[in-house]
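Blackboard transcription, Thursday session:
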Amino acid sequence: MSSLQLHQSLAPLLYKPNFLSHLPYPTLRFRSLPVASFSKNGISMSQSHENGVVRNGAQEEYSDSLPEGLLRELMPTHVAVIMDGNRRWARMRGLPIWSGYEAGVRALRRIVELCCKWGIKVLTVFAFSSDNWFRPKVETDFLMGLFERGLRDELENFSKAGIRISVIGGSTKFPKPLQVLITDAMEVTKNNSRLHLIVAVNYSGQNDIVQACQSIALKVKDGVVKLEDINEFLIERELETNCTDFPCPDLLIRTSGELRISNFLLWQLAFTELYFEHSHWPDFGDDEFLEALRSFQQRQRRYGGHDS
Amino acid sequence: MHLIVSVRYFFLGLVNMFESFLISSGLLKRYETLNISKIQYLAIVIDSEEALQTLKVLNLLRWLAAIGLTNVCLYDKEGVLKRSEQEITERLKSEKRFKAPSLNCAVSGVKEITTSDSLLDQKCMNLEFISFSDGKAAVARAANFLFEKHYSSDNKKKPNFTEFDMAGALRAIGYVRPDPDLMLVYGPARCHLGFPAWRIRYTEIMHMGSLKSMKFGFLIKAIHRFTTVHQNYGTVILLMHDIKCVKINFISFPFCVIFLESRNKLTFWVHVFGFL
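(Written on the board underneath:)
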C-alpha cells in the first residue's frame, strides 16, 4: 500500500520543469476584506464581492462545515507556505513581475480566508527571505513599500476579523516606519485568536537557530539557565516561532514545483509533512489548497500521527 | 470522496510502477545517461522501522554504487542504521561490484567495473551514518560549545553569534560533513524525520515511498529529475562584512561560501548560490 504514496515528483510530470528557480514572494498588499467574511459567530450572512463575483457568505460557515473529503479531526493545526512562483507566473503571461506579486497577494488573501473558515489555527507564510536582499534594489524597495502599505490597509480588518499578526525575521533592515508599523500591528492584534498569521520577512532558518542559541547564552550568563540544561527543547523555546503555541507546522506547502525548503523553518520542519505543488502561487486557490489538505489527511489516515 | 481519492492514488501508483519497469528495462531512452556530477553528496532518510530491513538497505546502496554515487549519508531517527553500520560496511566490503540491473547503457561517472573491486573501497563509496542525536541535539551541543568559548571566560567582549560561528562550532564537535544536494526519503511519512536541519537549507527532497517497495526505476527517475532541473546557482555576489573571523573555508557546489581575510581584517564573503 505504501507504494501508492509515491511522491508527485515521481508521477508523470504534469508540467515541464521550470528553469527559473527564482523565488519571488508576494507582497502583503491586501485589498480591503469584508469584515463579515470573517464573522466571529461562525455564520456570515453577508455577501462579499471579489473581482466582480458575488459570493454568498451564508455558504461559508466557519468551522461548521468542511468541503467534501476533509475530516475535522485530521485538519492540520499549523500550515506553513512557501509562496513560490509569482514572477514566473507573470512572465508566463507576458506581464510585469509586479502583476505577479499582486496576483500572489490575492492568492494569499484567499488562503487566509480559507484557513479562518476551515479552522486552521496558525498559518505561516514565507514572504521574504534574508537571501532575497540580493535582488535588485528597486524590487526590494518595492516589496518593502508594498508590505508597509498592505499592512497598514489591512490592519483594521485583521483586528476585527480576529486575526493575530506576527512578523518573524530580522526587522533592522526595514525602513523605520515599517518597523514601527509592524510593532503596532502585533500589539493591536495580539489578543486575537481566530487565526494566527505569521509572516516571515527577512527570515533565515539558520539565523533563527543562531539567535535562539544567542538568547540562551545570555540567559546562562545571567544565571537564568544552567549550562548543563542547554538542550534542543530549550532551543526550540527560543526560536522566533515561540510566538505561537504550535510552533511546528503539520503541513508545509511549496508551490511552483520546487522541492526545497530553502532555509525556511529549518528546525521546526523536522516532522512536517511536505507537500510540493506544481502550480505557481498566484494559481494556488481553493482547489489546490483542498488537494493539499486531502493529501495530508490521506497520509495521516494511513500512518497515524507522528512524533514531534 | 475518500474512496475516489484512494482510487486515484491507486491508479497513480500503477502508472508509476509501470514507468519504473520501463526505466529499469532501459526502454525509456531519456534515462539512459545520468549526469551525476551534480550530486556531490546524497542523503538517504529511512523510517526507523523500515531501516530494520538491512538487506533492503544494502540493495539500495548497491544500486547507488552502480549508478556511481559514492558519497552517501544514511539517516534514520532512532539510530537503527548506526547500529547496523558494521554489518552494512562489512557486507559491502566483501561484495564485488556489479553492473546496474538492466541499465545496459553508459552511466557517466561510473568507474569501469573490474572483478577485483570491492564495493566499499575507500575510493569508491563513502558512507555516513547519522541519527536524530546528530541533528537537534548536536546543535544544542554546539550552542554549549559557543557559550564556553565566548561567554564563560572573563573576557568582557561577548560577541553576537553568527551562522559562521555555529557552523564552526558544529565542525569543532565533529560534524564536518557537507550539505546534501539531494535527499531521498524512504518511508510512509513525507518528511525528513529530523535530519540535521542545519545541513538542508537548499537540499532537494524527494519522497520515494516505502523501502519495501523501492524500485530501481524510481531511483533513476528521481536522480534524473534532480540532475535535469535548473538550480539557478552561480550568481556571484561580493559583499564586505566587518567580521573578526579569520578562517578560510570552502564548501563546494551547489552552495559555495568562501571566506577570505584581507590585510585590513575585513572579511569578504563571496556567495555563490541561487535565489532559492
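Lecturer's comment: Chain B touches chain A through 74 residues (CB under 8 Å).
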